[in-house]
Write a structure and sequence with these properties.
Number of helices: 14
Structural class: mainly alpha
Mean pLDDT: 84
Largest sheet: none
Low-confidence stretches: none
Order of helices and strands: HHHHHHHHHHHHHH
């Protein structure tokens, strides 16, 4: 019971902190030097994702050193489970996060969020196929309620740029694929108890940052802009945001390990509500009746998923 309660709490906290991370990332992308030139605007999603994971891996390294788990991480990298975590890192980071930010660029944040929110349902399908994890009728209904509510919440036709809709839609689907596979592959990798949640996260962030820094950023010609961003004032905000995101990931991986990928993603999906709440508090944007009703339905649906 204690393990389950830890998992449920971790799932809720992962959603809240990712909501805050989303709002802070939006502020970063609208700051200098990301908006100084057309090229900077084009590269901003990739470089932001790279720096986010790079700083996050450094935060995790400090945590590993403080908790004396560095040797375990090195040992875990050599295990079968560690290799699965590396694969999951590529799905969640370079594939999932990068396509999420790119989709926002083409079809807007609201519509991208509504599409990406399907990832728990897809994750449930992968969990059923790969982990043989079954869903009760109530849990399935809860997922349907949550996902439908998020889609209603994010639906904003006026934000869609028709000429780029197909590209943005495909990118959002790739995000769904990446995030759903990440949670299930991580759960499969941690099944043997060879790798703990925090060790898995250290591997995940390190692999993602290395893949970005050594392959993606040089290919897209973003090395110079990355250096400019790191030496600018916005790097402090990126560092703080990555700490928030790292905390969200720790809670998320703990929830996956404690209550399984289906329930963990069902609770993590509340990030859309938390993002709007933080957007209202930090940026002063208003709250609508649709937000209130959909928020209630999403919370109800999440409880149905997480409850026995």
């Amino acid at each position: 019971m204690a393990n389950k309660n830890i998992g449920l709490f971790s799932g809720v906290m992962s959603g809240a902190l990712w909501g805050l991370d989303t709002v802070l990332t939006g502020i970063i992308l609208s700051s200098n030097p990301f908006i100084e030139t057309p090229k900077a605007i084009l590269l901003a999603p990739f470089i932001s994702a790279f720096l986010h994971d790079m700083f996050s891996s450094l935060w995790m390294l400090l945590y590993m050193m403080a908790t004396k788990q560095v040797k375990q991480v090195i040992k875990a990298l050599k295990t079968r489970s560690g290799k699965y975590i590396c694969i999951a890192a590529l799905f969640g980071g370079p594939i999932g996060m990068a396509t999420y930010l790119l989709a926002i660029k083409y079809i807007g944040a609201g519509y991208t969020a509504s599409i990406s929110a399907i990832y728990p349902a897809v994750g449930a399908l992968w969990a059923y196929m790969i982990l043989k994890e079954k869903l009760s009728k109530r849990a399935f209904l809860g997922l349907v309620i949550s996902i439908t509510s998020v889609m209603i919440l994010g639906y904003a036709p006026e934000r869609i740029q028709n000429s780029n809709f197909l590209l943005g839609f495909v990118l959002a689907l790739f995000c769904v694929l990446g995030w759903s596979l990440e949670s299930v592959i991580c759960a499969y990798g941690m099944k043997a108890d060879e790798v703990g949640p925090t060790q898995a996260l250290q591997i995940r962030q390190l692999v993602s940052a290395l893949f970005y820094g050594s392959i993606i950023i040089p290919i897209i010609g973003g090395v110079g802009l990355s250096a400019n961003v790191i030496t600018s004032n916005v790097s402090i905000l990126i560092c703080i945001t990555s700490l928030v995101g790292t905390s969200s990931y720790i809670f998320y991986y703990t929830a996956i390990d404690s209550i399984g990928p289906v329930k963990a993603t069902g609770l993590n999906i509340t990030y859309c509500i938390w993002a709007i709440i933080f957007d209202t508090v930090i940026l002063g944007n208003g709250i609508t009746l649709k937000l209130i009703l959909c928020s209630i339905l999403i919370i109800i649906g999440s409880i149905m998923v997480s409850k026995n």
